[in-house]
Specification:
It is built from 26 helices and 21 strands. β13 and β14 form a beta hairpin.
Length: 772
């Protein structure tokens, strides 16, 4: 089956105005029944297909991917394969089908059931739900939505290409269930899961699919606990089985997010599949190997993860080199799914036109793919105008004012190594004793619920319906209410709640030079949640204080310490679209110097505790082990540059969430924060053992409340989590806090959960006193 000359590996699925988010959350609230939700989702899929056809992807050649999800592509695979853990077994329908209500319960939990664990998808800011696979798991085809969507598309006149998480990646991402035998690994179940994949492929062919895309990013990663040879061997078994026989569509195996290992490359090249998609933005054109003469190679030369317009000349050169490998066909594609970028630059009227000319969102990237595809089909001259425009935009970007700021670069060049070191921790600990904190201090991570009233006030200010003075008055009232609430709850270290912040990165981007923000640039983070990553286009500097007045005001309302809240340099980079014309190290250090100045101003305002959040520290860790030491060196260095100017009596906190931390425990220690809060609730406190084993000596707050679910943990449940922590770590080190900020939660559940947190902590303190 001939593959299209150009395609994308996936498309944003939440909608240009977050239509899917609104429909799903309305359904969760009971305001929209399942039929209404299904209709809204079908309408969104229909508009997506029509838009991609309008942008030049063929309607009858499988160029349009069918990559929709109600929540998460890994969760889709879980329910398709019937791989829900036993605690959800009673939610199945009588015929074994897993209904949509069970799908959402697995994602969000309920009062009886904890949700599936959540962590970052490779080195992106997207979160996936972790499969729990034990030796007792029975796999069966339990959901056919992907088949139904192919039929839906055909009824509309489109021949689409369904996208599934591949079997090797599905199992490599999974965790073993509690009680699994020593030495058991989910990848051991490969032979059991393959028959269900074959059944799905057969049904997809019956539905009219000519091609199916199987995403196998595990084959580019060395961070999943399996070595290159193990993953390659698994891929050999998987694709020998899936490629056998004729009762299936043609198979495209995609390897996004990096470079295939040599073993994996040789394996997929020799496998009985029809096409291989390679990421040629984070990987190189591989060497020629046997097995390619009857295959299509899809060159992922258009970056699916950043928003720059890119260099079509360089992309064309990579496609030409790919053509030298002897494949039957070379096609052009994106490096990854476009789910990581916003929809459309033309939907951003507030962006400076010059900056906008440097950018390509999902629609523009699709246009670049179709231009290169036309060049492959008809010769390079057929896309001459697109090549010339891309080159002109690149040249203009290099010479534009603000891209390089001499003062910023001079300051960075003149810093000394001593400027990135604080006095020893023991000295700081002594200097901070007058904070007079109890055993097991309680706190939250920073944000409190962003209510409808807060969002309306912010919108009214932007529209001019609320004056600056009126808006400031509103914020003062909100901060005073949040401080009083925390005092009533009995928390020890308070926060001002961040009512003035729309987003923990965008707020700083709006107040730092070198950034731009978007109006409609939404990107899915997890489930129904989306962020608007800022665009870091030039050298970064701080025109003036950013957070000081609200922290100072909050501290004036209470005798308890209030944390100043900053977002760290690595996270600001990870959750922005960052310039690609210099190293991340240079950019991170520019941000760090701006934050260093902010910490100094917070200290002058009387703030004794400053939290510099780095939830993305693990997220950016390179997938290849050889590149990890350099990354950890500059990422830790940028944090130290930001915080090392703090006085000994200033307690520096940091926060990390929703990642596997075992591989970066040493780096977390090297951050030298006085207190580190870290996600632990959804994973059952697994990280505590890693912290203890590493000999971590500073303060640590393993999260006891999973805020990514509406589920409220009981005081007894929190007490159990605390028992795990107190059994593993000295009491003097431990803090008690939620996993993450409370921005996405409602006040009723937040207050109930925090009351339970305080009750559990009080019980733990009493137990400690009695045992002493």
């Amino acid at each position: 089956m001939t593959f299209p000359s150009g395609t994308i590996l996936g498309y944003p699925r939440i909608g240009r105005r977050r239509e899917l988010k609104r429909a799903i959350e309305s359904h969760w609230a009971g305001d929209l029944d399942e039929a209404g939700l299904q209709a809204a989702a079908a309408e969104l899929r229909s508009r997506t297909r029509a838009r991609l056809a309008e942008l030049g992807l063929g309607t009858r050649d499988s160029a349009i991917p069918e990559s929709f999800s109600f929540y998460d592509q890994v969760l889709d695979a879980i329910v398709t394969l019937g791989a829900l853990p036993a605690r959800f077994a009673d939610l199945r329908a009588e015929d074994g089908r897993i209904p949509l209500s069970a799908y959402f319960t697995a994602a969000r939990g309920d009062r009886e059931r904890a949700p599936l664990e959540m962590t970052k998808w490779f080195d992106t800011n997207y979160h996936y739900l972790v499969p729990e696979i034990g030796p007792e798991m029975v796999f069966s085809l339990s959901d056919r939505r992907v088949v139904d969507q192919v039929r839906e598309a055909r009824n509309e006149g489109y021949l689409t290409r369904p996208v599934l998480v591949g079997p090797v990646t599905f199992l490599a991402l999974a965790k073993a269930t509690a009680g699994a035998p020593d030495g058991y690994r989910p990848l051991d179940r490969l032979s059991d899961v393959l028959p269900v994949y074959r059944e799905v492929l057969s049904e997809l062919q019956d539905a009219g699919a000519e091609w199916v895309q199987l995403d196998e990013p595990a084959l580019v990663s060395q961070s999943l606990g399996y070595d290159d040879d193990e993953l390659a061997a698994a891929a050999q078994v998987a694709y020998a089985a899936l490629g056998a026989g004729s009762a299936r569509p043609s198979l495209l195996v995609a390897a996004p997010y990096g470079q295939l290992s040599d073993a994996a490359w040789r394996t997929v090249a020799a496998a009985p599949i029809e096409a291989i998609a390679l990421d040629l933005t984070r990987g190189q054109v591989p060497a020629a190997v046997p097995g390619l003469t009857e295959k299509t190679l899809v060159g992922g030369v258009i970056d699916g993860r950043n928003v720059w317009r890119g260099d079509l000349e360089a992309a064309w050169e990579r496609l030409e080199r790919l053509g030298e490998l002897g494949a039957a066909q070379v096609s052009v594609g994106t490096s990854t799914s476009l789910q990581h970028v916003p929809h459309d630059v033309d939907d951003e009227p507030d962006l400076d036109p010059r900056l906008a000319s440097w950018l390509a969102f999902a629609d523009q990237k699709t246009g670049q793919v179709t231009a290169l595809a036309r060049a492959l089909e008809n010769g390079r001259e057929s896309a001459r105008d697109e090549f010339a425009a891309a080159s002109a935009a690149w040249r203009d970007r290099q010479s534009a004012p603000g891209v390089r700021d001499g003062k910023v670069r001079e300051r960075l060049a003149s810093r000394t190594s001593e400027s990135a070191r604080r006095v020893p921790y023991a000295t700081r600990l002594s200097a901070q004793e007058d904070l007079d904190l109890p055993l097991l201090p309680t706190t939250t991570i920073g944000s409190f619920p962003q209510t409808a009233e807060i969002r309306r006030a912010r919108a009214a200010r932007l529209s001019g319906d609320l004056s600056d003075a009126e808006y400031d008055g509103f914020l003062r009232d909100e901060i005073a209410r949040v401080i009083a609430l925390q005092e009533d709850l009995g928390l020890d270290v308070l926060v001002h709640g961040e009512a003035e912040r729309n987003d923990m990165v965008q707020y700083f981007a709006e107040n730092l030079d070198g950034f731009a923000v978007t109006r409609n640039g939404w990107v899915q983070s997890y489930g129904s949640r989306a962020t608007r990553p800022s665009i870091l286009w030039g050298d970064v500097s701080r025109p003036g204080p950013i957070t000081v007045r609200w922290s100072e005001y909050a501290q004036s309302l209470t005798s308890r310490p209030v944390k100043g809240m900053l977002t760290g340099p690595v996270t600001i980079l990870a959750w922005s679209f960052v310039r690609d014309d210099q190293t991340l190290r240079e950019t991170a250090d520019q941000v760090a110097l701006a934050l260093r100045d902010e910490i100094a101003d917070l200290e002058e305002a009387g703030i004794r505790i400053v939290q510099v959040d780095e939830p993305a520290l693990r997220e950016l860790l390179p997938l290849q082990k050889a590149a990890q030491p350099e990354y950890l060196d500059w990422s830790v260095g940028s944090f130290l540059l930001a915080t090392a100017g703090a006085r000994p009596e200033t307690q520096i906190h940091t926060h990390l969430c929703y990642s596997e931390f075992d591989v970066v425990i040493e780096a977390i220690a090297a951050l030298d924060a006085d207190v580190t809060s870290i996600e632990a609730a959804r994973s059952g406190g697994e990280v505590v053992a890693d912290i203890a084993a590493a000999g971590f000596a500073h303060g640590v707050g393993p999260g006891v409340y999973d805020i990514h679910s509406p589920r409220v943990p009981s005081a007894d449940e929190i007490a159990t989590t605390l028992e795990v922590a107190t059994a593993a770590l000295p009491l003097r080190q431990l803090w008690v806090n939620p996993d993450c900020g409370l921005k996405t939660r409602g006040y009723a559940e937040t207050v109930e959960a925090l009351r339970n947190l305080v009750v559990a902590t009080t019980t733990a303190r009493a137990r400690t006193t009695q045992s002493a």
